[in-house]
Amino acid sequence: MVGLEQILKEHAFFAGCPADQIALVSGCARNHRFDPGQYLFHEGDAADQFFLIRHGKVALEIAAPGQPPIVMSTLGEGEIVGASWLLPPYRWTFDARAVELVRAIGIDAKCLRGKCDADHHLGYEMMKRFAPILVQRLHDTRLQILNVYGKR
Fold first, then answer.
1. What confidence tier does 152 reach under pLDDT thresholds 50, 70, 90?
2. Residue 28 in contact with residue 42, Cβ under 8 Å?
3. Beta partners for residue 51, in sequence order
4. What residues form DSSP beta bridges with 125?
5. Among 71, 98, 130, 141, which is most buried by a count of CB atoms within 10 Å?
6. For strand 39-41 and strand 29-34, is the pairing parallel, antiparallel, or unpaired?
7. Could you report the per-residue pLDDT of 100-111, keeping only the tens digit for each?
């Protein structure tokens, strides 16, 4: 049986991460399974963890009053779901729904923030890993807006 520390080492998000830091993070990790249609979290809820997708697809959605949810992005194996745990007020700004069976590792945010506060090298490593993801997702959102509003 493969332990969580080994699973984290093999996940794309932690590629090249020092082993001692992966060991620290693994203390905050646990396995999750989400069936198709099940929500990982809802907008406005406490952002108390983030997820490393091992298998399956997750739709990031925003609610539009009186309309079905709008899918902003669909994430899959090797990607992460959720960065709202990084900064106050630690609340989700969208919904995340399993499109198909999802197996993921959940990282407890409070646990990891405490470890990052105690070990600033770990905190810096996490920020270096999350910053490019956030920039890419902002870029993707910009392209979606141009696609929707740029047509005349």
1. low
2. no
3. 81, 106
4. none
5. 98
6. unpaired
7. 999 999 999 999
Among 93, 91, 15, smallest CA distance to 52 is for: 15
CB neighbourhood size of 41 (10 A): 21
CA–CA distance, 80 with 110 (Å, rounded to integer) = 17
Amino acid 66 reads G
Per-residue pLDDT, 150: 64
The secondary structure of 101-136 as a DSSP string is -EEEEEEEHHHHHHHHHH-HHHHHHHHHHHHHHHHH
Evaluate whether 61 touches 69 at the Cβ level (below 8 Å). Answer: yes
**Three-class DSSP labels, 54-67:** EECCEEEEECCCCC
